From TrEMBL:
Primary residence: mitochondrion
Protein family (similarity comment): Belongs to the gamma-class carbonic anhydrase family.
InterPro entries referenced in this protein's UniProt entry, alphabetically: LbH_gamma_CA-like (IPR047324), Transf_Hexapept/Carb_Anhydrase (IPR050484), Trimer_LpxA-like_sf (IPR011004)
Membrane topology listed for this record: Peripheral membrane protein
Subcellular location: Mitochondrion membrane
Organism classification: Eukaryota, Viridiplantae, Streptophyta, Embryophyta, Tracheophyta
Transmembrane residue ranges: none
Protein name, per record: Gamma carbonic anhydrase-like 2, mitochondrial
SUPFAM superfamilies from the UniProt entry: Trimeric LpxA-like enzymes
Organism: Platanthera guangdongensis
Amino acid sequence: MAGALTRLSGRTLRSALTTHSPFRRLLSAESAAAAAASPSPSTVAPPSDDRAKWDYRGQRRIIPLGQWLPKIAVDAYVAPNVVLAGQVTVCDGASVWNGSVLRGDFNKITVGFCSNVQERCVLHAAWSSPTGLPAETFIERYVTIGANSLLRSCTIEPECIIGQHSILMEGSLVETNSILEAGSILPPGRLIPTGELWAGSPARFVRKLTYDEIKEIPQLAVAINDLMQSHFSEFLPYSTVYLEVEKLKKSLGIHI
């Protein structure tokens, strides 16, 4: 009896679906809505972290401004995360280390031969200087700029040391064979004469440099230049890994 009722109800439902078109339209509409609500695997949006990686474009090291394009000598070292913008020139043997920003949008910035600008320094220039001197930031040869220093429209003559965390303001001038101690502030228009040690905030005269201290100033710049060579070699097209590969091939007798 139960089996007969089951067969009868099944035949009744099939006949209702085939004879009454509203039932068919209702079921087809419900199935279409269900298909639209469940997206296919190919249309699923990527996770937010993947989208963030895709949107990341990296940092530009060379930024042209108008007609001005930064110039880097062939044997100069500029770290990958340094920013050079506008009228910037990095001369032969010079090095600009990680995190530094040289912004030559208003005036020129020059890093001379065998000079070095160490980590996280900021160099920029004003439109004009209160002393009447050129408002460019000019660093001559064999100069060492300590980390986290700020230089704005100043001139540093050959063979000088600027200690880390120092600030040199507009129109300041550091003459040859001079040292500015770490953490010093050189006010606008201030002059450090040849062969003197200055320190403080604002910077003041401390004493005359000895002959040995003066002789060590360019030696420090040369030592940093030698260190720069090891960093510079890591940015060859294939880094220095190919040297290890050649050694391995030679030890295994591979002549390819």
